[in-house]
Amino acid sequence: MDVERLRRLPLFEELDFHDLAQLLRWVREVEATDGTPLFEQGSMPDELFVIEEGAVEVIHDGETIATLGPGDVVGEMALLKLERRWASVIARGPVRAVALNADDLAAMSEQMPELAERLRETMARRDRQNEG
What we know:
alpha+beta, 5 helices, 6 strands, globular
């Protein structure tokens, strides 16, 4: 994982080089194969994912409600609102994603509150765009 890879993802594109370099301390790369769940409906949120490559299906009560791909963020709202996951997210083919877990988001909030707030604002703005 490096700054340039993070910069290409819409969630992080507004961050400057310094912030992206700091963010590298808290994110990790995740790879999943076809059929692998990133998370399950009803589970407690522990991380969010930004899809870098591949596609995932969002499944609510056994029904596919969305297919997401590169640049899309999944799991952020349950993590921010601390609510159980309302859907499962399953890899459809090989997937590479950037993950940020709840503990690291909390650490970021303590050590770099301005960066954590910028990420929260970006996620909230994306949520409003998705609603409208």
